Amino acid sequence: MTEATGIVGEFLALKEETDADVLAMQCGDFYEFFADDAELVAAELDLKVSQKSSHGSQYPMAGVPVDDLTPYVSALVERGYRVAVADQHETADGHAREITRVVTPGTHLATGDDSAQHLAAVVRHDGGRGADGDTYGLAVADVTTGRFQVTQLDDADASAALTELYTFSPAEVLPGPDLRTDDEFLAALDERSAAAVSLHATESFEPGRARHRVREQFGAETLSSVGVADDDAAIAAAGAVLAYVEETGVGTLAAVTRLRAYGARDHVALDATTQRNLELTETMQGDSAGSLFATVDHTVTAAGGRLLKRWLQRPRRERGELVRRQRAVAALTREAMAREAIRETLGAAYDLERLAARATSGSADARDLRAIEDTLGLLAAVADAVAETERLADSPLADVLAGADREAAADLAAELDAALVEDPPGTVTQGGLFARGYDDNLDAVIEEHEAALEWLETLPDREKERTGITHLSVDRNKTDGYYIQVGKSETDQVPDDYEEIKTLKNSKRYTIPELDERERDVLRLEERRYEMEHELFEQLRERVAGHAALLQDVGRALAEVDTLASLSVHAVENDWTRPELTDDGDLDIEAGRHPVVEQTTEFVPNDLEMRPGERDFLIVTGPNMSGKSTYMRQAALITLLAQTGSFVPARAATVGLVDGIYTRVGALDELAQGRSTFMVEMQELSNILHSATEDSLIILDEVGRGTATFDGISIAWAATEYIATTVRAKTLFATHYHELTSLGESLPTVQNVHVAADETDGDVTFMRTVRDGPTNRSYGVHVADLAGVPEPVVDRSREVLDRLREDKAIEVRGGESDGADTTQAVFDLSSGQFDDGTTETDPVATDGATDPATEDVLEELQDLDVNETPPVELLAKVQEWQAQLDEDS
Ligand code: ADP
Ligand code: MG
Fold first, then answer.
1. Which of 630, 668, 701 to mutate to test the pocket of ligand 1 (most atoms within 8 A of CB)?
2. pLDDT digits over 719-731, tens only?
3. pTM for the complete prediction?
4. How far is the CA of 628 from the centre of ligand 1 (A)?
5. Exposure b/e, 459-490, CB count within 10 A at least 16 = b
6. 3-class DSSP state for residue 82?
7. CA of residue 485 relative to chain centroid, distance
């Protein structure tokens, strides 16, 4: 292809300037996409492609009208593309085009979605000498609301940083200079999050430059006052985010008014898998209905909904903050009348945080400012309602509202109210925005303008009287300007000063000198008025933008009241209880329910009791469909709800605060959806074994299911031992490997519970009640019997089963035995027997059928010290054995 010139050449040259994925270039009344971009846009958005010939070459071309660009850009950005927009402007000799903004998934202001939209930068600095790990800095901005948060993780690894990142569900991530070449990090990011990854200029991450930028944005002292003055990695990330937002030209930097620093210890770690497994904001099928959020959400404002979602996705660890929320929820629970009145008031609120960002970016119109005024006015109404109800006035709710400056809000509201007409138009360039008395000069122009309009309006009456013509009207259009129109039958009566300008089928149009003169006046005044109003409006909008912090404060206060009221509504309607929060790790739930399942099912409540050091690992057994998964998720969700400050679905609950919730679901439900591969399952298990601490809660649902019994049981066994003896996290482990229940006898903190089932008239009924102890029989064999499987087969399976159980199968390691000479027996699949391993003979040699390769594997397995082997190595081993056995068969 020859070098493109002309319009396509200009397009391609502009495209070179940006690292955006797509360029939209204005050409008169259209934005055009050319070449590859045209093909891409056409494919994504169903646009028609035509051919543009330019100097002998053909180029694909697609376009959208200027006024329709926004929805197309939004659609592209929502699909993860970065879209550069080049506008055309007039110059002395024709026109020129330049890129004015780049819209990206993290800087997209015109989003139609109420959810938070996070842009994150993540930076890794070498931990330096003596450090266990590296230092990670994280900065997260929501340009639609101006929220900006930073944190630094010291001595951390990539998985900790990723976990932190996932809790924000970022739309776009800017990896720092070091991380952008880390393929493993990028792959993990790609796999577990929907974020677009943008490689922003490395200089912006440079510590000196970043620090300078952060100071410019937030003030010189801010870094020390929020306690991150020495956190270079956090500052580098923050600086890069600020630089990126500025460079993309969305114009909302001014809405970023405050830097919030939080410690990694403030929040409960929830990785992406756990958020999905617990169906926090969407179900496994990807629907939002049926998620925890959708179930408990009774907020009446967009900002309240956003906050509730954030609370669920980022539960807190600090008891003080949680108790504060609980007390507010409790007070609201008992003051139903006041609560409903407050919610009704809040129902009229607009999204102040978002409006603040619109004001600072210059996209707010007069209706937006009216919306700001209306909403600011609600602060007083809500605050009064709280103040008038003693129990609410004495609750933390009062402090929430005190966080917003009521007087300043009232002043700004009054200013806006005095400035704008009651119901302003949606455009800011055609006047009609300002109320009389706001600006004297404007008033003078308006008066003249309206007098001129009045003269025009009354002209027909005057002319009718003067001429005696009855079919006479005055009107205006683009080509003729103002004119007098007279019906055909009366045109012979027009006076001499009527000058004919047009003849129509049934009428004629005239003008008179006085009308020409007034027309010039009206046009002049109109232009003047529009200009003045537009200018005044921009000034007003800028003053509002100057109050961005106030708007955010008020918006956040109202959002928090809405969120707390929502929690209270759900608690009352569903008979939830206020959990007691402790630091000693207990989890004691009396008659607990699953918050989502209880909505649609006659739920059978269950108890749960876990006590660190005594009973912190529960092996959950029971037949398929008996309720194991539900029971475990219920425990995780009650803990999570308690750590958002919510009440919980139980008769009573004591919740020991956790530092993280980790889940792994290898259950058939997962596998059936093709989401789980054995490798993913093991990666997740590995992550849990590395990340969880004794303050964590782990939910393992049928781990090991993704592979053959032999591997699966070994891994499940070893993982149980490792968690129980080394990690010591509170753990619930549902398993179909009945053999694992024997661990309950030898590991002191491991206990068995089972979901009870009952048999009546040959039917198995699941009672869904959880009891201590392992399941005492196999419902699998029982069901086979019921289903009419021939008697000899059923009998024989009972026999095999009994043998499997009674032969003291695998010796437990890491429990009471102090290591030295622990024997380990091996489950031999080919004979369906366990060997206790104490015999001198080779464990499986008795069978005679075992080949040397299998023996090697068995020997290695026997010699392997599970306690001394890191989980990843263990995994590698298992894979190696598998390969060896495979080769063999
Ligand atoms: P499992 O993991 O043992 O196979 P699940 O937890 O998936 O069983 O539950 C199977 C079905 O039973 C689900 O439809 C679930 O909604 C229902 N269920 C589970 N626990 C209860 C309960 N306590 N009360 C009522 N229904 C329940
Ligand atoms: Mg299950």
1. 630
2. 999 999 999 999 9
3. 0.81
4. 7
5. bbeebeeebebeebebeeeeeebbbbbbeeeb
6. coil
7. 61
